[in-house]
Structure formats: structure tokens, C-alpha cells
Amino acid sequence: MVFLKCRREKVHIPKDKRYIFMRGNGRGRTAIIWSLSSVDNKASATFTVEAKHFVAFGISFKNEAPTGVAYTSQNQSVAVFVGADRVAFYHCAFFSTHNTLFDYKGRHYYHNCYIQGSIDFIFGRGRSLFHNCEIFVLQDKRIVIHGSITAQNRAHQEDHSGFVFVKGKVYGIGGVYLGRAKGKYSTVVFAQTYLSRTIVPAGWTDWSYRGGPDHLFHAEYKCHGPGADTFGRVHWAKQLTDEEAKYWTSIEFINGNVWLPAWL
Q: Are residues 153 and 90 in the same domain?
């Protein structure tokens, strides 16, 4: 177990350092901060975890690099890169403006976390459950198109990755999509979540994937708030039934009943 206060440094948890538990004094008091933009998302990350069975509690992770005057690949400023299986964050916060949380691969659990960004700020091909998380959208006036909260990159039918958001809330400044397709089988679900007017009526976009929306799984379940109005949603967006939602809204989606801490 490691206890932290505020540190200004770039941190890497390598593959051979399993079973680390990092605990802070709360996301408003303990932070790991760095400032770096790069064409390489992983290289820009303030905090990188590549070891299995990692748990963080009560810590803020920040990448303070400026976004720049134009929307370019140079502006990738990741706060956290998660590239390992069985990783969990409790009561943590993730701050950046662009590409905040690189949920690269593996099964992950986020509980009561705060995530802030403007463009594709939760992305990757992880198999992840976000429970009761707060998502704040920053307005980006440099671009003429709307940004997206998620850019999930499930490329194959045999892959079981996807991002699932259960409860919590989405709010912020400007307009944003719930997600954009970054892979042929891009999979994202928002369930029982408060959606403010920052969610544009279409809800979802496939603009970055030229193969069409036939295999996309972009779904909602009993969301509420002004942004949850389904009038104007894209034709491939799904509204789940109670039976369909059981699989997506349970920790069994990430096999969490096997590996999450017993005190969950």
C-alpha cells in the first residue's frame, strides 16, 4: 500500500509490480500532476498503469498541458493510461482537455469518479464499468463539430470490450455527443444516467468510422434529464429493455464478482 499527497511527476506502474494499492486523502487533497502533450497518447500520460490488480482510492490525476490554438494530433494530453487487466479506481478524478482517460485494454472499474474533458476524453478498447461517475464536458471553441465523451474502439465481434456508464451524471458547457465510433463494433452504454442539455439531440455519431453503423452498439437505458430525450437520436441508437439491461448494468459485465475488492 502506498499513501500519497500531492506530487508533481510522471508515474509509471510497470507490468511486474502487481497488487499495488495507492490511497490518497481525497481527490480534492491528493493529486499527481504533470504537463505534457504528444502525438503519442501513451507517451503523454501523467499516470500509466500496466500491472494487473491495481487499485487507486481518493486521488486526482491531472495533465495540465495546454490544448493549443488548433485541433491537431499534437494536442493529445492524457491524464491516465490504463493498460492492464483488473484495475479499479474509487473516488478518483481525471483532468485534461483532450483525451483525458485512455482506457486502453483490460477489465476496469470506476466508482464515484470525476472525469473532465472536451474531445474523445474517454477512449480505448477497455471492458469497463463506470458506476455513479460524474462527467463534466468542457467547451472547445476551436472546432466546428461537436466533440464526444467516448471514442470506444472495439474492432472485432469476438472482442468483449465496451464502456458502460451506470447512474451518475453528465453535464457541462457546449454541445457534445455521448460517443463516436472508433471501431466497427464500437460499444457504449449509458444507463440510468442524468444527461444535461450538453448532449446534442442526435446523441451519437459514426463520423470517424467510414464502414457505417450496422455493427455499432450505442445504447441507452432509462436515462433522464433534458439530454435524454430520444427525439432526434440517430437511427442506430438503441433503447435497452429491462432484460437486455441486466447484463450491461451488473459488475458481471467485467467479471467483477471474481476480482473486485470484497469491500465493494
A: no
The DSSP call for residue 99 is S
- In the chain, how many domains are there? 2
Which range of residues forms the domain containing residue 50?
1-65+75-96
Q: Are residues 132 and 172 in the same domain?
A: yes
Rounded Cα distance, 61 and 78, in Å = 10
Q: Could you tell me the strand order of the sheet in which 169-172 lies?
A: 7-8, 31-34, 60-63, 93-95, 114-117, 134-137, 169-172, 194-195
The enclosing domain of 201 has a CATH number of: 2.160.20.10
Mean pLDDT by 10 residues, the chain (264 residues): 72 96 92 91 95 97 76 74 98 93 98 93 96 91 72 90 97 92 91 97 80 85 97 94 95 94 63
- Which residues make beta-bridge pairs with 54? 87
173 and 140 co-located in one domain: yes
Cα separation, 182 vs 10, in Å, equals: 28
List residues with catalytic annotation. Answer: 120
Q: Would the pTM of this model clear 0.90, i.e. be above it?
A: yes
As a 3-state breakdown, the chain gives helix, strand, coil percent values, each rounded to 5, of 10, 40, 50
| Cell numbers standing for residue 221 | 437505458
Placement of cell 480505448 in the chain: 124
Spatial CB neighbours of 160, under 8 Å, sequence gap ≥ 6: 127
Residues 137 and 230 in one domain: yes
